[in-house]
Each structure stands twice: as structure tokens, then as C-alpha cells.
Amino acid sequence: MYWGMGKIIMKAGRLVERHPQLFGTYITNFSCGPDSFVVGYFRDIMNRKPSLTLELDNHTADAGLETRVEAFLDIVHAYRKLVSQKQIVAIKKTFKPARTAINNGTASVITSNGTVLPMNDPRVTMLLPSMGKYGSEALAAIIRGYGFNAISHRPSDEAVLKLGRANTTCKECLPLILTTGTLLSYIGNGKRDDEVLVYFFATGSGPCRRPAAGRNTCRRAGRARRRRSTRCGACRVAAERRCRAAAGRGVAPAGGGLGRRGRVWGATSAFAGWSVVHFGPLGG
């Protein structure tokens, strides 16, 4: 988590989720700034445990808030009853996210099944989202000069924007929406079955939401796959072709270099034997 207050909220959320007598309420002002990301993390932490999110400002009517609070209390009462009857049990997470690592100056990808691949392995592709046509292509060429298989995605168009909006809340910043759409577009249209995809994501310092966007991109991609897998028939087949971007909920940071503006994140899916990794710097 990039912001100090966000870290405190997430710590409190984990405490609430573990305590059987506590239930969380997240109060936000229409997803202003960091809230557009933190509220999603909060809901993920709560998992199956009920929580209440209230978006309000000085113009919000009290009657609507009272109705929502009363409905939430009813849900909590029903939840506690089901827990006491052991109809709701905790689900153990067995999925292990992939991660990137740099050992002795060598960058590698560790997949969810434990396979270690050097970053310059022919099966590993580093995808750069569009940061301007010429800028992305130039950066990809520089990375290829270091021995990595790097490609730049085409500039974002309406199709990428729609795909990103379909798999985000649309309250996050535009870079998150576009990078999510870019990742899903590549996986749905150009990724090989045996390919391990490394997603380059630029970050930086300062009061910006972008440093959290990389983690959120992988998480949203995973949600896209899980949400669409509930469909049936032709819709499910089309969805799986278009959205094999499940990236797991956890995103694991690792160390790295290549300047001061990057971070290395890793995420993968155990579905269909493929991996998606978010990668920042190259090391050294």
C-alpha cells in the first residue's frame, strides 16, 4: 500500500476480518483519490464477511444512510446465525501467486507451481503498455538490448478502454483502466498458451494513485476471469478466449533496480497452466 492512511485502514480491516464480533464499515467521499483503490482492497480483505461501504458528503440524506445501516445490521444478524450453525466455513487459500526475483543480479520469474524461469527465457515475454507510441517502442527496444523479449502494446483505443471499464469500477484513475484493458486485450488476442507474460508497469513517487495501479491491474484481471467463468455456453467460451487474464488476488513485491521509479510485482493464475506477472525494473 502506497499511502500511510491506506496502510492503517488495511491493518484495521485485517483485524476486523479475524475478529468474530467485529464487522467493518468503510466511509468514503465518492472514492476521492486513494479511496478509489483502498476500498477495493478493504472489500477483498473482508472476503465473505459482510461489510458496509458508505459514500457520503454534506448533501447526502440521512434517511438513505439509516436504511442502509439497518439493512446491514440485518445481514450481520443472518451471517452470525449461519456461522453458529456452521453453514459458513472459512476457505483456506491454497493458491500461491507467482513472483519475480533478482538473485545475484539475475532476474527470474517463479511461477505458482514453483518453476523458476530466467527473465530472458524464450517463453517469457515482457509486455509494455502504451505510454505513447514512440516512447513505448523505444523503451521496448532498449530492454531487448539487455537480452529480454520485450514488446510494446499498440496505443490504447476505444476497444481497450471499454475492456478496461468493464473490469474496473471506473472510479480509479484512467491509467489503471487503460492498463487493465491493455493486459486483457493482449491475453485475449495475442498470448501463446505456453507463454509466461511479464507486465511492465511504470511507477513513481509523489501524491499519485498510479503506484497502486500495478497491483490493482493484476487483481482486476483475476476478477475478470472469475466473474466471466460463471457464464454458460457460448458466452463462457468467448469469455475464456478473451479473458485468460486471471492474476490471483495476491501480488508479491520483490527487489529490483533500473532507476528509482520502478517496483517489481508478481501475480499468476493456476488456471490452464499459464502465468501473468507484473514486472517493474530489470535490476542492476
| Straight-line N-to-C gap | 25 Å
How many structural domains are formed by the residues? 2
Number of E strands: 11
Strand order of the largest sheet: 7-6-8-11
Name the helix and strand elements from N-terminus to C-terminus, one letter apiece: HEHEHEEEEHEHHEHHEEE
Give the averaged pLDDT, no decimals. Answer: 74
Question: In percent terms, what proportion of residues is strand?
Answer: 15-25%
Helix content: 40-55%
Shape annotation: globular
Low-confidence stretches: 225-284
Give the number of helices: 8
Please tell me about this protein's structure.
It is a single chain. With 284 residues, this protein is α/β, with parallel strands linked by helices. The protein has two domains: 81 residues, no CATH class; 181 residues, no CATH class. It contains eight helices and eleven strands. The longest helix is centred in the N-terminal third of the chain and has 23 residues. The chain is globular. The two termini are 25 Å apart.
Write the SSE topology.
Elements: H1 4-18, E1 25-28, H2 35-46, E2 52-55, H3 62-84, E3 99-103, E4 106-110, E5 116-118, E6 124-128, H4 133-145, E7 150-152, H5 158-166, H6 174-189, E8 196-200, H7 210-228, H8 233-242, E9 252-254, E10 264-266, E11 275-279
Parallel strand pairs: 1-2, 6-7, 6-8, 8-11
Antiparallel strand pairs: 3-4, 4-5, 9-10
Helix pairs in contact: 1-2, 5-6, 6-7
What descriptors fit this protein?
16% strand; 284 residues; disordered C terminus; alpha/beta; three-stranded antiparallel sheet; 2 domains; four-stranded parallel sheet; 8 helices
